[in-house]
Structures are given as C-alpha cells and as structure tokens.
Design goal:
3 domains; 9-stranded mixed β-sheet; Rossmann fold; alpha/beta
Length: 691
C-alpha cells in the first residue's frame, strides 16, 4: 500500500486535487485516524494554495460570495423576517451605564432573552456590539460576559448579549417536573439538537446565526444606535458564531473572535470533537476553513483573541493569523488585523476583555479616554438581569423549541411518493430512491480506497455451498454473539459466509492508547466525516460494495446486517442488484424516530445529512423488492425493540410495494424474537433461498 487514494478516487476529488502517498498502515486501530488525517492534509493544502493565489479585490469578492453561498447550504436557509415583538422588562442602574432586560422573538414564538448594556453618558448616536456567548451554562449571565459587556458600555460602546439556545433562560429540552433542561445546558443540549439538525439538512448554527441577525435588527430599530457602527464579538462557542457570521452580514463593521480561531484541520489533529454547530457539512470539501471565513470578512477591522494554554491550539491560531495577514496586506489594510495573546487557559479573561474594548473604541472612533477594568465596579448580580419570571422562556412565555421547528421542517420536506402499481412504475421508484441514496450517503464509485482495508473472515462449507453471504455487524464480525447466533446459522443453512469489518467496526475500531479522550471515537470520526462531506455510514457502505465482488466469484450474494450493519445492508441492496436477499437484524426502524426522541441513542455516525428530505428506512426496504427480505427485531430510536403493531405501521409502505409486485411472501417481518429464535429464523430463511 503506497498511497491513500486510488486513481478513480483521485479523479472524483479532482476539484480539490487530492493526491499524496502515505506510509503503510501499521495496524487496523490506526487506520481510520491515518486516513482522515491524510485526507484533511490534502484538502487543507489545496485550500491554502487557492487562498494564497487570490490577489485582487475582485478575487476576494468572489471568495466572499462563495463562502456566503456555502454557508447558506451548510446552515440551511434562514426563515423570512418576522416581527421582533420586543418587550422591555425594565432596566438596572449600574452607575456609569444602564442594563436593559429584554425579550424579543427571533422567529415567531421563539423567544430570546437579552441584556442591553447602554452607556449613560454619550453624545450623538452610539456604536453598538452584539456579543455572542460561549457555552457557559448560565449564558449571558456568566461573570466574564457581564464584565466584558459592562466594560464596553463604560467605553462608550453599547453591548447587546443574549442567551444562546440551550443555555441561560433558553433551555430547549425542559423537564416538566423540574422546569429546567433534561440534559446538560450548553454542550449537552447542543449535541442533542445539533445532531438532529443534520437529519433535515441543516445545522444548529442556523439558529445561533439567525439570533445574531435579529439582534442586529433590534439595534437598528433603536434610534440612539448608529447603524453604520455595529460590531460582533464572541467567546469560545460564541467566537465560532463570530467566525462564521461576521462575513455573512454586511452590517457587521468590526469583529472580535476570542478563543475560537484556529482551523478545522488543527482542531481535529488536537482531538477536539466540537459541538455540531461548529461541524459544518462538507466545509472542507468546499475548501472553506477558518482562514476563508475570516478572509471573506476582510478588510474590515478584525481582532483575534487567543489564550496560549488553551485547548484551542495556539499554533493553529497563529497560522491562520499569518494567512490573514497576507490577505489584509493584499487588500491594502494590514492595520485592520490584530492578534492578542494572553498567557492563560480557555476563557475571556481581563486581558482579552480590555483588548476587545480598546479594539472597538478604535474601530468605531469613540472619543475620550479609555476606561480599564481596574476603574470598574462589581458586575451586577445575576438576579437583576433575569428576563423571564420563571427563569425559562419555555415556562414563562410558552416559547417554541428548536425541536418543535425541526419536526415541522421534517414534515415539510418529507417526500411524498405514489405507490408503484407495476414493474415499470416500481423501476422509476427504485431508481429515484437509489439516486437519493447516492446523493445523501456520498458513497461514490464502488471501488476500494487506498489507506482503507476491510478485514474479512471466510468460513466455507465446501464445494457444495448453496450460496455466499456477506455479514456486516456494528459489533464486529468476531463478536461472540454474532458468531454464535448469526454466522453459525448461515453455515448450518449450507451457505459460505464472509464476515467483514467496515472501517471503524470490529478489528478496525480506532484504538489509540496514547490518546485519552472523554468521547467515543465513533462520534469523533462521524463529525470529521461530516466536515469532509462524506458521512461515515456512506463510507462503510462503500467498504461493503467495493469488497464483496472482489472476494467471491459468484455473481450474486446475500447480505446480513446486524445493528447499524442492518442499515448498511439495506442501503447496499438498494444500490446493487447483485444483492439477491437481505437480512436486517436489530436495525433502526426509521430516521424520523431519532428526530422525534431527544433521548435517542442511535449513533451519530449513522446520521445522514438531509436524509429526511430524501428517503426513509422503509424506502430502503421497499426498493429491495421483489428480492427476499427478512427484518428481525427492528429497533426504536433508543435501541429498544419495536412492538409488532408499531413495526407493522412503520413498514406498511414496504409491504404494500412488495404486494404490488406480487411478492408479498418475500418480505418477512419478525418482532420480539429471542436469540435462539433468531438463530433458527436465519437458518430457515437462508436455507429457503436454495429451494
């Protein structure tokens, strides 16, 4: 093995010029990590080369338009503007500034709790900054955020800050018994909601960025603020909002991103998993990383804040700053770019707060003497800043939730298909589903990739074998239960079997003893695959479809999938007519069930961006018709068994398609079957194929 990609794969990646030899894989536990890291390197080298080649204002205008277009695709489109219906709930006298308590609706019925820090003494129209919070559980009430906003106001710049979704007074997944979040505020809620955004083809950043846009709308509605001097600042997760949104809205005239700027590649190499709103679908394939997002903002004033001992890698921050320094120089405004570093860990400390306040004073031409924190008083108590009587907008105002809107979106985009009544109509339906599968999974050509090996175990029943079966199981081909209750049953039915371990499963599961992380490797590589624009389930599907025909001389074979392997098997059969039959064991019954249940445990590695607008699991099964299909113990979103009545409802469409093709007997659905029963079912079903 001398390279990471085959020629065909390189051709498919011609737009990003992916080609580079790598060392041979020393062991399977490193395989997926080495593959992703090299893929990132190739894409990043091409990205950096394209950015360096931009020289004129026209080049950067083209870049800005491309970045905005791609952000719209990655976030999902914004809704139409609706009335803000702002409520002013009172103000706090903080000596040299005022703090207003506000609620506005960024979308109809979607309430945003905000505090507006307004200078007491100011002449003329006042410049203003919107401040996007990081992942602090208490949102806008976090001490360093209150200190920064107060410092801005003391320096003649108004500051509007608000609670992000899932934080402060805007918990989205409220436990009715406690009135607070059922999950960890901040990253916990963001993970639940953000993962589900992918299913409808969007991203949680859509909600965070739109809140920022509406915050600007609110400032523009106030006559005391200068619409020509509006800025954006953010810390950590809010810094990522700044990083993505600053270039998107022309009203942002200056920006300060703190403890966020590095690069997607560097964060991967630092083993940072990131929240879903920071994981944009296909951003790296599109050639957009932190430098492009900020270059699209150039040459407006930009301050990058960084902590030297942050988990956000400081060297990557410096590299991105160096790329941007070249951009600002080409655009004739090198003085508009600044980097401030503090010898500290992650956080908006005093040094960064004072640097940010001084930056906005300069950018907006605020006259008079700068005020430092040493001259400031104590931040106002949190209780004085609360905007909702009960402490949560869902309780006090009956606010809609992100999950409510995702469900509505799923209803809106769900495909409506007419039941095929003939072989010709079925072929149209099958082709449509197959096309959607290719679009969503990004499976590409059924060719092996350099850098990826698919270990197999062949168990032969001899020259009288009735057929060949391929097995994929998320537990791995060598798991004792898979061997005893699945593989042994196939052999007993007189069929040879190849057990495969697609990338990340079984012996190819990531195993890097030197890396201590608090998350599942499967999740980490799922997010990286989303950034690459190639969902991990699609990569595993590619492994099956590229490996099976190379291992057998038979023209046709069956596929048995266990767990998520059941989804891989069904996708494979929907795409490849050489698959003559499928057994799906303990597979997810529907993608929609994951969206509907916030406590779903289905792995994010099987989340396919936009799948709910393309097809459902039942479409996979229906498109297999009239070939034999056995569905055993389908699962709900939490991994529990689906009751028979629920399963009948879920797969009624597939049954109707089979019936329309006079093949109803070829579809068998079994629920509540124990291990011994599963073993017998598999044996009988496989044996019947030879009859």
């Amino acid at each position: 093995m001398t390279g990471q990609f085959t020629r065909r794969e390189l051709a498919a990646l011609a737009a990003v010029g992916c080609s580079s030899p790598i060392r041979a894989q020393p062991r399977f536990g490193d395989m997926l990590w080495d593959y992703v890291r090299e893929y990132l390197r190739v894409l990043d080298d091409q990205r950096a080369g394209r950015l360096a080649s931009a020289v004129s204002k026209a080049d950067f205008a083209t870049l800005r338009a491309r970045v905005r277009s791609e952000l719209t695709r990655m976030w999902g489109p914004f809704p139409a503007r609706s009335p803000l219906t702002p409520r002013q709930l009172g103000s706090v006298d903080a000596d040299d500034h005022w703090i207003e308590r506000l609620v506005f609706e960024s979308r109809p019925g979607f309430h945003v709790t905000a505090n507006l820090y307004r200078p007491r003494r100011a002449s003329g129209r006042i410049p203003a900054v919107i401040f996007s919070c990081g992942h602090a559980a208490d949102g806008k009430a976090a001490a360093s955020y209150r200190q920064f906003c107060a410092l801005l106001a003391r320096n003649g710049v108004a500051a509007l800050t608000w609670d992000p979704v899932g934080q402060g007074e805007r918990h989205q997944l409220i436990d009715p018994e406690t009135g607070t979040s059922s999950f960890r505020p901040g990253t916990g809620e963001h993970r639940v909601l953000g993962d589900r955004c992918y299913l409808v083809g969007g991203n949680l950043m859509n909600f965070r960025a739109w809140d920022a846009a509406r915050a600007l709308d609110y400032l523009e509605s106030r006559p005391e603020f200068d619409a020509d001097r509006l800025g954006l600042a953010g810390q950590s997760g809010g810094g990522m909002v700044t990083l993505q949104f600053a270039c998107f809205d022309d009203r942002v005239r200056a920006a300060f991103a703190s403890c966020a700027v590095a690069s997607f590649r560097a964060k991967t190499e630092a083993l940072l998993i990131a929240d879903p709103e920071q994981v944009l679908y296909g951003t790296l394939r599109a050639g957009i990383d932190h430098p492009e997002l900020l270059a699209a903002f150039a040459p407006k004033p930009l301050l990058i804040g960084a902590a030297i001992r942050d988990y956000v890698p400081i060297e990557a921050t410096r590299r991105t700053h160096a790329e941007l320094r070249d951009v600002y120089s080409k655009l004739g405004e090198p003085g508009n770019l600044s980097l401030v570093e503090t010898d500290d860990t992650h956080g908006l400390n005093r040094e960064l707060r004072e640097a940010g306040a001084a930056f906005f004073r300069r950018a907006f031409g605020v006259p008079g003497r700068a005020v430092g924190e040493a001259e400031a008083g104590t931040p106002r108590p949190v209780a004085e800043l609360q905007c909702s009587p009960a402490g949560q907008v869902g309780v006090s105002f009956g606010s809609r939730s992100v999950l409510d809107m995702l469900r509505e979106k799923a209803d809106e985009i769900a495909p409506v298909r007419r039941l095929p009544r003939s072989a010709s109509e079925f072929e149209v339906y099958r082709s449509e589903v197959a096309g959607k599968i290719r679009d969503v999974t990004r499976v590409g050509a059924f060719k092996a990739e350099y850098g990826i090996e698919v270990p197999s175990r062949f168990l032969d029943v001899g020259i009288y074998a009735k057929g060949t079966v391929f097995l994929v199981a998320d537990q791995g081909k060598d798991h004792p239960l898979v061997q005893r209750y699945v593989i042994d049953s196939i052999l007993a039915a007189g069929h040879s079997v190849y057990g495969l371990d697609p990338r990340g499963w079984g012996v190819t599961a990531p195993s890097m003893p030197g890396a201590e992380v608090s998350y599942e490797w499967d999740d980490f590589f799922a997010y990286r695959s989303i950034e690459l624009g190639r969902p991990l389930l699609g990569q595993r599907l590619k492994d099956l479809l590229s490996t099976a025909p190379r291992l057998t001389r038979r023209r046709n074979w069956c596929v048995v999938g266990v767990g998520v392997g059941g989804l891989v098997a069904a996708h494979a059969a929907a795409l490849d007519p050489r698959v003559t039959g499928v057994i799906s064991i303990q597979a997810l019954a529907s993608f929609r069930s994951v969206l509907d249940n916030p406590r779903a445990t289905h792995p994010v590695s099987s989340f396919l961006p936009g799948v709910l607008g393309a097809y459902e699991v039942r479409d996979l099964y229906a498109s297999i018709a009239p070939r034999p299909l056995l569905i055993v113990n389908p699962q709900d979103a939490t991994g529990g068994p689906l009751e028979r009545q629920a399963a009948d409802r879920e797969f009624a469409w597939a049954e109707s398609v089979y019936e329309a093709l006079d093949a109803r007997a070829a579809l068998q659905l079994e629920c509540g079957v124990g291990r011994a029963g599963v073993r017998d079912l598999i044996k009988e079903w496989i044996a019947s194929l030879g009859d």
